[in-house]
Amino acid sequence: xxxxxxxxxxxxxxxxxxxxxxxxxxxxxxxxxxxxxxxxxxxxxxxxxxxxxxxxxxxxxxxxxxxxxxxxxxxxxxxxxxxxxxxxxxxxxxxxxxxxxxxxxxxxxxxxxxxxxxxxxx
Length: 122
What we know:
Order of helices and strands: HHHEEEH
Structural class: alpha+beta
Strand content: 15-25%
Low-confidence stretches: 1-8, 10-19
Strand order of the largest sheet: 1-2-3
């Protein structure tokens, strides 16, 4: 009984029509297009990520002349006084990218450092 059930299911599967293939000139399926579009972050998502990074880096949101800016207190070397560094909201993504690149460069130098050539810039 079980064998005949399995055989009938297999035959029904083989009798089904084959999936439609896409011709070279046609556009991709809507579901595939939507999946690709959803994997690319929107401008609002990028701004939200940059704002989260800024908060984690010690920046706080302020308003300057009615426009949003992000400011951070920075210590000055050799001084008990610090300074306030502010960046426009539009520049947060660039600042984040520069920070990540600097961290990667330092990590790379630490890995490549051997012997007396550690202080050389590459």
